[in-house]
């Protein structure tokens, strides 16, 4: 399997090469990058930000967007998030959906694996699924260490994978346990709205439609609860 972030980068590269970075916000919950094409967001792994007074070595406003997008390949989680947010600023695919994911996908009576902890989704689908297994690095109640995923994912009817796995380069680790990509849902605001990615599952992501509001929310320490007013839900169905 080709490295998925490479496929996503290649899809976006033609649109990035002539653009510059206009602004960026490194927020507590999400990182936003604004280019001349719009804005994109990606999750901030804030525990991974290096110590010291500066999150980055230098400002990158005015830099070529394609060069900044290459940071998605970095092993540094903040640099990778900045790179992914830059890519997300130009990816504008999928159809707008105000529906909850449970209205798009039939979860009734299914065994579901969830990679990454989405509390609102857990509350939404737990009453209707047969079994729900949540794999999470943080020690949240009723979650499992991701190391157990290889035992459960092959037995699951639906596999939800957080878009944050594109930042920490673990997406393929979990996809390797899936026997049918039509079972897969990539979920969350970090998820790239990439047509290439839809070969590997349904995408349930977001597009920044109100750049100024989203920048304001993130600059004030807001997360998804505050930021979502500036986003539009998008769906790309697997094929």
UniProtKB/TrEMBL annotation:
Pfam families: DUF364, DUF4213. InterPro entries: DUF364, DUF4213. This is Heavy-metal chelation domain-containing protein. Residues 10-91 form the DUF4213 domain. It comes from the Bacteria. Residues 107-235 form the Putative heavy-metal chelation domain.
